[in-house]
Amino acid sequence: MSPKNSGYFTIDLNSPLPRYYQIQQNILELIQSNLLRAGDALPSERELSELYAVNRMTLRQAITELCNQGVLRREHGVGTFVTEKNTATPFFPAVTGFSERFRNAGRKPTSRVIALEIVPANPQVAEHLRLETKTPVISLVRLRLIDDEPLMLEKSFLPYQSYPDLLDEDFSQQSLYTVLAERYGVQILETEQTLEPVLLTAQEAELFNLKSGLPAMLVSISAYSTNRQPVEFSKSVIRGDRCRYYFAVNTPNPIIFR
Predict the structure, then answer these.
(1) In terms of residue numbers, what domain contains 70?
(2) Has residue 2 got a pLDDT over 50?
(3) CATH number of the domain that 70 lies in?
(4) How confident is the model over 45-60, as pLDDT tens digits?
(5) Closest by alpha carbon to 155, among 210, 90, 98?
(6) Over the range 202-213, which residues count as b (16 or more CB within 10 Å of their CB) and which as e?
(7) Whether residue 232 sits in one domain with residue 142
(8) Domain assignment of residue 253, yes or no
(9) Three-state SS for 108?
(10) Could you tell me if residue 49 is inside a domain?
């Protein structure tokens, strides 16, 4: 990308949105569209200030925030560079499994099974699966990797009585949702998801090869088959420096205020 091409680095100076925010979004869009790639150097602050027609302080605020998010990195005396491409994870609706979702995005998903066992359902798991507390459930804990880099620690819980043969499967090689469909004829038709910012514990950080206490996202998912029958409840910790969530909102019948 040529730093002289002002057609790439543009914002709407008449927009009510803060200019530093518009700059951040513009750079993120350039990365998502592969016009800026991992390792690419951004134009200098002086050049970017001219291209965006903003002062250096506004430009620096935008760049600093993107560096804090892990999207960009500064090298003193050298310049500012795009880091490895973050993983944009669909938020809602998303009824496909982890592996299918990222294969469709052209990435290579793999899994490392940490545990596959029968455990008594704690109150939270029991509530989401509509079971009595301490009812036996299957606990499947996997480290999920994208392009061989750890991205997510996922803990899935399923009713043992409904899916006992899952204990015989190798989920380092197979998709849980594929096994459910092929072995039990169960299709995931609906999910409910919640997001919660958290900090990495020492155990999680070790699996991610990161320092404990770094920001992460806890994603809880309830997955349902026909007639909203609970199939799975999962809790996943996603490292914050490699994940960016994308929200798409559609309003088929807009409300008109008078």
Answers:
(1) 19-82
(2) no
(3) 1.10.10.10
(4) 999 999 999 999 999 9
(5) 98
(6) eebbebbebeee
(7) yes
(8) no
(9) coil
(10) yes
CA distances from 255 to 46, 247, 248, 251 (A): 44, 20, 18, 9
Mention every residue, 6+ apart, whose C-beta is less than 8 A from residue 41: 79, 80, 81
Q: Distances in Å between the alpha carbon of 78 and those of 39, 73, 176? A: 13, 11, 46
Phi and psi angles of residue 140, each rounded to the nearest 5 degrees, phi first? -115, 115
Q: Which residue has the tokens 């299918």?
A: 100
- How large is the C-alpha radius of gyration of the chain? 22
Q: Which two tokens stand for residue 99?
A: 């592996």
| H or E element at residue 28 | helix 19-32
The predicted structure's pLDDT at residue 93: 44
Closest CA to 179 of 193, 169, 188: 169
Same domain, 120 and 151: yes
Q: Which two structure tokens, joined as six digits, stand for 7?
A: 């057609």
Q: Determine, yes or no, domain membership for 10.
A: no
From 56, 82, 108, the end of a domain falls on 82
- Say how far apart CA 83 and CA 71 lie, in whole Å: 6
Q: What pLDDT, in 10s, does the model give residues 167-187?
A: 999 999 888 998 999 999 998
Evaluate whether 220 touches 181 at the Cβ level (below 8 Å). Answer: no
**Partners of 141 in the beta sheet?**
115, 155
Whether residues 242 and 133 fall in one domain:
yes
Q: Whose structure tokens read 């155990």? A: 203
